[in-house]
């Protein structure tokens, strides 16, 4: 049995849109406009500049202390900020400002157990997406990032420390990683220590700590070379301070 013939609307009226014509066509494919009918114009657009430009303006507002709704008191330092930006970047602040904590209603919020400069760097990162991890700040920056639950900065600090691993500091970095639950850095430091054990054993750096071989084995789960197992005089190593 043959199907019904499809009817085309050929009598397009002046000023009539494609949807007008379609509404008069009761036969044919309802999802397809008749031939000769202009297709509706549509162009989705996503701005690459918008997020960056928006943050730049909000950061300027912060620097001029405009529309700021919270002041973070860190030691002797006062840092003006916007709750929405802090909450968007940090689960720590999100819990603080959206819950029933007293801080959610306070204009000034005291943040304890965090380095002033590290906090400034992290707040700057929240507004600029930029931060510089270096030897002079990594040991205060990582604990601060852990407190504020900034996983991205924790990873950046750990990556920096991985690149700094050296026979003179690997056990110090390992201890630092262990303290702050940086499992990947801890694993890398253990592996580095094991691969460089002979060099570690003869280290003679100026700043050093004496650690018995037995304790090194316990702390790092190392396979101590047979030639050193009976030697428990101690290993001179440099630790991070």
TrEMBL record:
<comment type="subunit">
    <text>Component of the BCR(KLHL20) E3 ubiquitin ligase complex, at least composed of CUL3, KLHL20 and RBX1. Interacts with PDZ-RhoGEF/ARHGEF11, DAPK1, PML and CORO7. Interacts with F-actin. Interacts with IFN-gamma (IFNG). Interacts (via kelch repeats) with IVNS1ABP (via kelch repeats); this interaction blocks the assembly of CUL3-KLHL20 complex.</text>
</comment>
<dbReference type="InterPro" id="IPR011705">
    <property type="entry name" value="BACK"/>
</dbReference>
<keyword id="KW-0677">Repeat</keyword>
<feature type="domain" description="BTB">
    <location>
        <begin position="68"/>
        <end position="135"/>
    </location>
</feature>
<dbReference type="Pfam" id="PF07707">
    <property type="entry name" value="BACK"/>
</dbReference>
<dbReference type="InterPro" id="IPR000210">
    <property type="entry name" value="BTB/POZ_dom"/>
</dbReference>
<protein>
    <recommendedName>
        <fullName>Kelch-like protein 20</fullName>
    </recommendedName>
</protein>
<keyword id="KW-0880">Kelch repeat</keyword>
<dbReference type="Pfam" id="PF00651">
    <property type="entry name" value="BTB"/>
</dbReference>
<dbReference type="InterPro" id="IPR011333">
    <property type="entry name" value="SKP1/BTB/POZ_sf"/>
</dbReference>
